[in-house]
Structures are given as structure tokens and as C-alpha cells.
Amino acid sequence: MEIRQLEYFVAVVEDGNFTRAAARLHVTQPGVSAQIRRLERELGYELLDRSGRTVRPTAVGEALLPYAKAALAAIRDARLAVDQVAGLLRGQVNVGMVTVVATLDVPGMLAEFQAEHPTVEVALRQGSTDDLVDALKDGELDMAFLGLAGEPPSFLRTEVILADPLVAVLRADDEYAERESVLLKELASRQLLSLPSDSGTRRQLDASLAMAGIDAPIAFSASDPQVLVDMAARGFGVAILPRGAVRPTDEELRLVPFADPDMHGRLYLAWPDDRTIDPAAQAVIQHALDRIQARPHSGT
Q: Could you tell me which residue ranges the HTH lysR-type domain spans (predicted)?
């Protein structure tokens, strides 16, 4: 039994198709088929049901699958352990990021790390807070920059890296445009524009509205803050966003902070606390924390 045979077997089960598995592994489809046939002959059982459109594991294949995955994981961990002792980082680090991280140059931060460690591949994925939390829980991500309202999930380690005040994005001719601050209740009759309901910022806004006893439904939501800014500029409503997510270029706009308590969007760096983090991911996390702490005015 060879490691590559187990690797091919797991890939075919995961993809349900020999051709897709071969493409993912960067080998030929006949090569994948031949190696799995050899494995089946060695074990004396068929591992895959090839009769349907989708290739599925047989009962014996289902029994072998968790052990095959464990063996491959052990090989990866062994290589990482050796590399760590040798001072070499390698592998892939999967990083998640919410759309509204405008005040942090996350791509630049990751590119800087990759330039220093060319044997590490860094993959960046954008999504909503809920999607990123699920991906961290499922092991699809190693770390994520995300917004959270309330206590972080217990399976995550987190560092608050930015506490950004929420602001009302108003047209310059609005009656509140020249105010030093505004209360949520003063905007209760307006059309409110905000981030989607699964974002940390939106949950903070919803909690603040409820605390103030305001029943003001959000008229429009979008995951891209600039869309909300553009709609506010056109007079469609008042956009409520973290200050750092707004880069107003329109002279007709004003950003007015809120006087209500705890009107902040908090940005966290989060990573799993319930499993071992490989050295490459640990290095990216530390690099991010170091760069964030070195920033002037890095969130108060």
C-alpha cells in the first residue's frame, strides 16, 4: 500500500469523479485508475462503486476512508514537524476576510508575508462573518478577519484589532450634516441603509436600535460599503457604516458619528482554538498581529 494510492482514493471519493480528481492532483486519469486498481487488488476488495454517474465508495471503501485521511494527515504533520525543526515554513494558509476591512491593507499584509516566505502559499477568501465563522469551524480556513457582535464563539481565539465607530453617511444638505453627532432616534423616520444581516456591524446596529426602542427596518442592505455610500449620495437614505469602511470621495457627503452608547463596529483576527495550527498558519497570524500593532492609531 502506497501513500499516493491512498491520496488518489481520497481524492476520487471527495470529487466523485476520476477525471476531476486527476485534474486536482495534476496527474493523468488512467494513472489514478491504475493506482486505485492496484490498491483494490492488494486489499482484495473493491473500494469504489463505478456503476453510476458519480463514483461512490463501497462499504469497504467507507471503512477505509477515515484511516486513509488520517494517514495522509499524519504524513503532512510529519513533514511540517521536520520543516519546523529545520526552520523552513511551507504549505498553504487559508485566510478569510469580511468585505468591509478598508482601513487594513490585508492583501498587502499577506503579500508581504508571502514575499518573505515564498514556500508558503496564502489563499485569501472573502465572505460574510457567518460564512467565515463556519469555515473556521469546519477547518476550511486557518484564520479570518471578521466582525463580531457580542461574545466570540467558544471554539475561536480572537484579538480585537480595530474598534471603529459607526457613522451616519449623509448628504451635505441634510439637516444633520453639520452636527458633531447624531442619535439613532433622530434618524428613525429615515430610510436606513446597512450591511447584510449576517455581518457583525449589522448585528451591532440591530442591537443598538432595539436598545433605543426604535422599530426602524433597514430599507436596503449590501455587502459592499461603497454601494451604500453611493446610494446615500443619491439621496436614497442614510447609510450606517464603520468609519473605516467609508472612503468618501464625494464632497456632497458628510460622516457624522453617533452619540448613542457602544456604536462601534469591532474587527477581530480569529483562528481556531480547538485544533492544532500548523507552523505556517501560526507564522501568518503572528505576522498579522505584529503589523497591526505597529500601525499608528490601529483602532481605539
A: 1-58
